[in-house]
Design brief:
The protein has 3 helices and 3 strands. A 3-stranded antiparallel β-sheet has the order 1-3-2. A hairpin with a 2-residue loop joins strand 2 and strand 3. Helix 1 crosses helix 2. It is elongated and about 40 Å long. 18% of the residues are buried.
Amino acid sequence: NNPLTLIEAARLMGVSTQTVRRLIQREILSAQQSMGPHGLRWEIDRSEVARYLEAQRGGQQPQQPLSSNRV
């Protein structure tokens, strides 16, 4: 599984990186932080982005992920 960066997730979702950060902070998107070449970075599973987009298409508020793996 190849996780998405914050920028990649934002592009796929059609939102800003700040919006993705807010969704992570509000635990609407589950994400992990890992050490990258320039410090800590967020990694978002593709299935989380797909779940969010599916809920948006259905006009629903996305539910919180079943497991929150935030660091």
